[in-house]
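Risk mitigation, structural track. In case the binding assays with thiamine diphosphate fail to produce interpretable data, a predicted complex structure has been prepared as a fallback.
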Amino acid sequence: MTTAQPAPDLAAFRKLAVELRQTILRTIANAGSGHPGGSLSMVELLIGLYWHKLRHDPKRPDWPDRDLFLLSKGHGCPALYTVLAYHGYFPKEELMTLRKYPTRLQGHPERGSLPGIEISAGSLGQGLSMANGIAMADRLDQRARRIYCLMGDGEIQEGQVWEAAMTAHHHKLENVCAIIDANQLQQNGPVKQLKDIEPLAEKWRAFGWHTIEINGHDIAQVVKAYDEAATIKGKPQAIVARTIKGKGVSFMELNPAWHGVAPKPDELEKALRELSTVHV
Amino acid sequence: MVDKATRDGFGEGLLELGTTHPNVVALSGDLEDSCRAVAFKKQYPTRFFSVGIAEQDMIGTAAGLAIAGKIPFACSFSQFVTGKTLEQLRMAVCYQKLNVKVVGSHGGLSVGADGATAEALEEFAHMRSLPFMTVIAPCDALEAKRLTIACADYPGPVFLRLGRAPVPAITKASDAAQIGRANVVRSGDDVTVIACGVMVMHSLQAAEQLAKEGISARVINLHTIKPIDRDAVIAAAKETGAIVTAEEHSVIGGLGGAVAEVLAQTHPTPMRFVGVQDRFGTSGNPADLLKAFHLMPEDVVKAVKDVLRLKQHAL
Ligand SMILES: Cc1ncc(C[n+]2csc(CCOP(=O)(O)OP(=O)(O)O)c2C)c(N)n1
Ligand SMILES: [Mg+2]
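Fallback model:
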C-alpha cells in the first residue's frame, strides 16, 4: 500500500519526471495520435499525488477508502496511464496498446475499462461536478477520503466548472481539491487569445475556495500545496498550477501545434535525447 | 481524384459565403481547426467569434447573433455541438425559429482513436426530434460545400453533420444538391438502400456486388434526413418493395427511424437497418471501426439479402 510519505525524496521525483515524460512520448508516438502537450504539462502534478499525497493501493484499485484522482481533462490520459503503469495497476507493456482497437487504454479514459480510472472523461468540463457528488456521498457515509480533480485552463471555460465551483463552496466540500493545469494554451492557441480566464486565483478565491497558486513544475511547491490543501477545513481547495504546455521538450513547449499530434519517429528521437540531457 | 473529408468541403463553402453573404458569421469553441473554419477566421477576423470551450454559451451567442440579423455558423465536434447544447438548441434556437446553422465535424466513428466521448452516434436522433430543425449529412466534400452554401439561404435552424476522415468523391457539380430533395444515385428494382454520409459510398459498393449476383439495388443519397423527401422514400418502397437503411449512427432514431416513420404510415414495407447497434464508440482507426461496427459494404449486402427474404415471405 502506498500511503502519504512524510519526507518526499524530491531529487528522485525530478528524475522520475524525466523518465515519465519519455515514456509518455513513446506511448503517444506508438499510438500515432494523442495529446502530448497537455500530458507533459501535468507530470509533476501527478507525481505529487501518486508518489506522495494520494492514499492508494494498486493491488486493490477498488479499495473503498482510497483517495480518488479524477482526470477531468481526459485527453491528458497518456500521462495518467503512464503513472498507473509505473505503479503496477497494469503491465507497462500495455501502454503500447493505447488507442489501438480493441484496447483498455482508450483515447480518453473509460471508467471500468482499466484499473485506476475513476471516471470516464473526454467531454471537457464535467469532472468537478462528479467530484462534488462523490464528496457528498462520502459525507453521508462518513468516509474520509479526498477527491482530487485535474482540469485544463481551457477546460475551465466550460460553464459547468463554475456551477460546480459554487456547489462545492455552498456545500463546504472540504475533501474536494481542484487542480488547474494552467499551461497557457488550449487547442487553437493561447488561452489569453481565445478566451481569457485571468485572473485565475482571484476567480477561485471569489468563488469561496482556498486557493494556492504555484509553479506546477517545481515539485517542492507541488508537494507543499497538496499538503497544505489537505489541512483546510470547511471549504474546497483550488491549486492553480502555472505550467508550460509541452514541458521538457523545447520544440513542443508553448507551441499549439503540439496539442493533439503524435511525434513522428525522428521527432520522438529528438525529444527523448533532449530529455535525457536534463540535469536533475 | 484525391479523397477529401466533408469537413473540408464545409470549410470551402463557408469561405465562399464570406464573400457572397456579408451577414454570415462564424463561431467556434476552440475547434475551428478541426472544423476547417480557420480559413474563414483568417479572411474575416471580425466576423469570427472565439467563445472558448463553451458550447452552450456558443449556441446562446449564435441565437443572439441571429436575433440581430446575422447568419451564424456555430462549429464544434458533432457530439459537443449537439449533445452539450440540446437545451440551448431547443429553447434559444428552435423555439425561436432562429437562423442558426449548427456545424458538427467528426460525426460518426470518423474521429477514430479519440474514442467514445468524441464519437457522435446519436445526433440525428437528438436533432431530428427538435421542431423546426433541419438535419443534413452530406456524403462527400463537394456535396458538403454545396449544401453549406445552400444553408445560408435556407431560413431557420440547420444542423450539418460532417466527417473527419477523407472520403472519395461521389457527387458531381452537375448533380442536384437541394436541401430536402433526395438523390437517386443508382437505379434498381429489387430493393432500395437509403443512406447518408460515408454509407452512401458503402451502399454503392454493395450494389455493385449485388449486381454480380443478379440483384438490382437502387441507392438513394438521403443527404437531408429532415425534412425527409417523402416522395422519394414512398416511391422506392412501392417500386422495389424492400428497404435497407444505412447510416454511421445509432439504429435508434436516425435516418432509418425517419424512413420507417414515413413508411409505417403510408406503405408498410420490409426493412433492415444498417447502423450502430445501441452502443458507444471506441478507440481505433476509423477503417477498423467501420468493420467492427458492421458498417461496411458487406454488411449492407447482408442486410439486403435478409430483407429480400422478408420481401419473399410478404409476397
Ligand atoms: C466539451 C468539449 N469541447 C471541446 C473538446 C475538444 N478539445 C479537446 S482538448 C481541447 C483543448 C483543451 O485545452 P486545455 O483544457 O487547456 O487542456 P491542455 O492545454 O492541458 O491540453 C479541446 C477544445 C472537448 N474534448 N470537449
Ligand atoms: Mg491548457
